[in-house]
Specification:
Structural class: mainly alpha
Shape: globular
Distance between the termini: 81 Å
Number of domains: 2
Helix content: 40-55%
Length: 572
């Protein structure tokens, strides 16, 4: 009886049962982190949401601002154009990482509800609950369809530290899309005979298009990762001369390009989307292999390999031990007869190697040491700056290695040994991610205190037709550098937070606004200075974060900042 129950965990089961088990585990893990108020979008946390690392302290609030403006924008072409951000030209919301497809979906929901509904909490719930489901689908595509495979996939992928650390960058939490792309790749490569008939395997092109479109309208990093995996699958199919591969690929590519133009993601302005600083957010060579922020090893609870500005690429102690166990099993049992020759996956292997090298960037580091630095032409470095946090391109390799380790243990280890190992590794992985879960909970429970009186600021905006903030986010550093301040870092941090708080307040009223956090599209500070020097316009709310405002009766103090608004004709 005992052997029969053990065999049942490995025996193929219906897809709904295996994926449902993975979803249940993922949902339970997510609910342990996120209160219902956060998921429903009603918690105080959403007043000024913040991440758990320095790079996410204002990014999350910025993404919320962009999402609100996009959800309230009128329907027009391009679909992501928001006229009220940096008018009169407006801005494409794609540059603000607000999960654009969700902002578009919110518009009809808002029309039905009669007020703006925040769906970002539901997105975060799905993003943290689905990695295990996607990994279970990948394992099923590879032939492992038992309940143990689904449970192990969820226990190892849902608490993965390199996923949890992205709390603060909402769109980038959808790493399940990368795993889903690997699952599609495996399903397409393993399907025999479908290339001989247009009707067979016809679900794959539609699935690829949906995944590519989803990631294009989520975040540029995710789209490039998924697009690379799609390109690898297409190339390998072409090399094997599978029928219909070329027309399907061209149709998919044409549809994605059309979507890019319809949303405004592809436009002349896209070419100026680079920035300086490529390599700053690279992957440290020690990051994937050394336990960090570890709940399983208490002395390493606060340890971070390398510089904090670099991307945190630690996959978790459970995954590291999984790979060691898989390597030992592989060496003991030899090559699995069910594994196809590596040459059938040459394009994918080359892609993953390319992603790894890109993650390391031209500045290779180990701990605090720079091992190698290759100079890049200025134009190339600026273009690559669109991916300043290049270390994130380690994610596809991390998930591919995790899937490979699971497949080796499930196929080659004895069933009893595999069960004990995978259960133990899952427990270690969940324990190891404890400090990151606690950090997320702390960011939710203790939102940052406002840096000025929001009630008085909202009273200023009640009858305003527009808001202008000086200095805007893009010019804060320049203003601080040339201003009489005692503490440069503290002042810049305060001004950045004040800027984003004002943006969120303006987004509630859907007011035209001149300030926005956009690292890829620089601000013209000279033009902003001219705008500041121009006469005040009636109905416009002017906010001066440096405390220097025109000497006018219509100006007042809101705590430490100054604000002015001339009465608008017919409104005050």
């Amino acid at each position: 009886m005992r052997h029969g129950r053990l065999a049942a965990l490995f025996r193929p089961c219906p897809g709904w049962l295996a994926l449902g088990l993975a979803l249940a585990i993922g949902a339970a893990h997510t609910l342990a982190m996120l209160p219902m108020g956060v998921i429903l979008g009603t918690a105080e946390f959403w007043t000024f949401p913040r991440g758990i690392v320095a790079g996410g302290q204002v990014d999350m609030a910025q993404e919320l601002m962009g999402y609100r403006y996009l959800a309230q924008a009128p329907w027009m072409l391009p679909l992501l154009h928001v006229p009220n951000i940096t008018p009169p030209d407006g801005m494409n919301a794609f540059w603000l990482d607000p999960v654009p497809w969700l902002g578009l979906l919110t518009r009809p929901v808002e029309a039905l509800a009669g007020h703006l509904v925040n769906l970002l909490g539901f997105f975060l719930f799905a993003a943290f609950a689905l990695p295990g489901v996607a990994m279970a689908a990948l394992l099923r595509a590879a032939g492992e369809r038992g309940l143990l495979a689904a449970a192990a996939a969820a226990l190892l992928c849902d608490p993965m530290p390199l996923l949890l650390i992205e709390w603060g960058h909402i769109a980038l939490c959808l790493q399940a899309a990368v795993i889903a792309a690997l699952a599609l790749y495996v399903a397409e490569r393993r399907r025999a005979g479908w290339h001989n008939d247009w009707r067979e395997g016809r679900a794959h092109p539609w699935a690829w298009f949906f995944l590519l479109a989803l990631t294009l309208l989520t975040h540029l990093y995710l789209f490039v990762m998924v697009g690379g995996i799609w390109a690898a699958a297409t190339l390998e199919n072409l090399l094997e001369r599978r029928r219909w591969t070329a027309p399907r690929a061209l149709a998919t590519l044409a549809a994605i390009v059309a979507l890019g133009f319809a949303t405004g993601i592809l436009s002349p302005r896209t070419l100026s989307g680079g920035t300086t600083g490529f390599g700053i957010g690279s992957m440290n060579l020690a990051s994937p292999i050394l336990p960090q922020l570890s709940g399983a090893i208490p002395p390493l609870r606060e340890y971070w390999a390398g510089m904090h500005i670099q991307v945190f690429d630690y996959p978790g102690l459970g995954v590291l031990l999984l790979l060691l166990a898989a390597l030992a099993t592989r060496l003991r049992h030899g090559r699995d007869s069910r594994s196809g020759p590596w040459r059938r996956h040459g394009a994918l292997l080359a892609l993953l190697l390319g992603f790894l090298l890109f993650a390391l960037s031209n500045r290779v580091t180990l701990g605090a040491r720079v091992l190698l630095e290759l100079p890049l032409p200025d134009k190339l470095a600026y273009a690559l700056g669109a991916f300043r946090a290049s270390g994130r391109f380690f994610w596809p390799l991390a998930y591919a290695l995790t899937a490979s380790g699971l497949l080796v243990l499930l196929r080659q280890a004895r069933r009893g040994v595999a069960l004990v190992l995978l259960a133990g590794l899952g427990a270690v992985q969940v324990l190891d991610a404890g400090p990151l879960r606690q950090a997320i909970a702390a960011s939710i429970a203790h939102p940052p205190a406002p840096v000025f009186d929001h009630a008085r600021a909202m009273a200023l905006l009640d009858h305003a037709t527009e808001m202008l903030v000086f200095p805007s986010v893009g010019c804060v550093a320049q203003a601080v550098e040339h201003g009489p301040v005692a503490s440069w870092l503290a002042t810049e941090t305060k001004l950045d937070q004040a800027n984003v708080e004002l943006q969120l307040l303006a987004a509630r009223r859907n007011l035209p606004l001149n300030t926005v956090v956009n690292s890829r599209l620089p601000t013209d500070c000279a033009a902003e200075a001219a705008m500041r020097a121009a006469p005040l316009r009636p109905g416009v709310a002017y906010v001066y974060l440096d405390g220097t405002a025109p000497a006018a009766a219509e100006c007042m103090a809101i705590d430490w900042l100054r604000a002015c608004r001339l009465p608008a004709q017919g409104r005050d």
